[in-house]
Amino acid sequence: MDKKWAWKQILWVFFYFFLNGLLSHTQAMVQEAPPQIIVNLPSRTLELYQGDMLVKEYRIAIGKASTPTPEGEYSIIEKEVDPCWYPPGKDYVVPSGPSNPLGYRWLGIAPLYGIHGTNEPWSIGSAVSNGCIRMQEEDVEDLFERVDCDTPVKIEYERVKVRVDSNGKVSIGIYPDVYGRQRVTMASVKQTLAAAGLGGLAEDSFLQSLIREIPDRQVEFAQVHYLKVNGMLRAKYIVSWKGKKQIPVMALADSLGTAVDWNEANQTVSRHRQTVPGIKHGNSVYIDVENLPVLFGGREAWNGKQNCLELTLPVARFEGKLLSGDIHRIESGWAIPALTVATALGERVNWQPDLSELLIHGKPVPFTAIGGQPYVAVKDLGELFNLATLWDDQTQTLELSYPLYTIDYSMYLDPGDEFL
Fold this sequence. Notes:
34 strands, alpha+beta
């Protein structure tokens, strides 16, 4: 056997297992996102997250106004089972047991401050401690098993909380100003909703009643659904409004590299000679999901298990990156914006809308005007731009690659020149 060949085989086997091990490790890191804790003082809640996903919420007791729980970013620095208590200013120690106010678990986050159990379960939900965070005994024992030292702990003061649960139910809570630090106004509530991508979904009268009454709990007010476009989860939600699912059309168009026109006076949305009714919630314009095919074409499917609408819309990609969502069916097949393709390739194209003429490489070419812009047939891209094209009907994707034909630049050189 050739020794060089044998060594090559050994190296390939080693590389194969190394690469697979690296991929497995990377996937495990993604799947096992580190936990983090967020404590919100006005709502007296402790939330445990795994990455960005809420795992569990616990009711807590916090420091009283004279000894407030400090805000800031901390981490768990110690864990102790059956802790002893050293009363401030006293020279004795209270061992673990029913008389110990720390309960049976201690999670230290800073000198003299920690998360612990309690022998006064009725105090949970109040501002009564010397600054530590109290939990029901069964809750702190549950949390103790879920987190390790170095787990981040953020203590914040947010009187307005907006939440979207795993079923898409949207709730808002306004909580007491336990330390007299934060005033809640209509403007601040709307700002919080807008930051969560939920602006305009709640009526002013509803928000005013919450501000006036301070319900001290989460109140449901909307139903949203997740949105995937061509396999990618989008930040904007679909909302259920008066029995119909509606989608934020401007955000969708932006993500596809295209545009739509909003007519405020007529309450309509238009794209390339097609018009559908629209409605504005806050700063976002929505259309009914059933009107999506009119404006964008493509296919849609409802995934009930994930509470998600999955859209497959026609797009063009160049060298693996999104080029345009503005591709259209014409009589001869698909068409794509000529100026968009030219810009991506660095080609000079002369578009003269007044003369209704499109010049590529100085020669007039056939085109279709859509929305005031010249579109060229995909079947002509090879001849016009030396582009290879491949249409995938399942993913509704037009893949473009360059060049279709290899160009021999040596023909442009003088005989004595070198081609570098």
